[in-house]
């Protein structure tokens, strides 16, 4: 039985998805974005990006991953994968998440990692644009459940730079691993306030564990 997230190998990508990808690539190049670092040469990982401060973030991540030769994936509510939108969403890299199922979002995505040969899932780790800089733990639980590494991704909107860090394999110690990610992000933008908040979050978690 074909699931919402399966694409027929014999079907060509929709015309709309091909057109949208070309437009995104054109905007990315027109804006003059550059890359710092590269994605790892491994088949599966979670890309945890921050900050999530603009609706344009998705466009620039699509452009940056395309420059690396990668088609990224993202999570979407199952209702977006219905009717004429289904194939478009799948072709764009969408993974349908059904909140009605007994398996939660982490379990559903972990199943997709197990089913696929390649999967590079992009997650806005802060959750929402209104975040103060603290990260939600969903990205970590997904990587841990799927036994895949986390690739931190930082963004500097002022200089139009998007960078990728080295993959970090979850150890089960969230506070420690978040500290490693925060240290990398701070090394790229030491004075950026949201990354300072992230570092403080990791430190608080470590102190809470110690107590």
What is this structure's SSE topology?
Blueprint: H1 15-30, E1 34-36, E2 44-50, H2 57-67, E3 74-77, H3 85-91, E4 94-97, H4 105-115, E5 119-124, H5 138-146, E6 150-156, E7 161-164, H6 174-188, H7 193-210
Parallel strand pairs: 1-7, 2-5, 2-6, 3-4
Antiparallel strand pairs: 6-7
Helix pairs in contact: 1-2, 4-5, 6-7
How would you sum up this structure, described in words?
The protein has helices spanning 15-30, 57-67, 85-91, 105-115, 138-146, 174-188, 193-210, and strands at 34-36, 44-50, 74-77, 94-97, 119-124, 150-156, 161-164. The relative contact order is 0.17. It has seven helices and seven strands. The chain is 41% helix and 17% strand. α4 packs parallel to α5. The mean pLDDT is 92. β6 and β7 (161-164) form a beta hairpin. The strands form two sheets. Strands 1-7-6-2-5 form a five-stranded mixed beta sheet, sandwiched between helices. The N and C termini lie far apart (50 Å). With 211 residues, the protein is an alpha/beta fold.
Summarize it:
This protein has helices at residues 15-30, 57-67, 85-91, 105-115, 138-146, 174-188, 193-210, and strands at residues 34-36, 44-50, 74-77, 94-97, 119-124, 150-156, 161-164. The chain is of the alpha/beta class.
Characteristics of this structure?
single chain, 211 residues, alpha/beta, five-stranded mixed sheet, two-stranded parallel sheet, 7 helices, 7 strands, 41% helix, globular
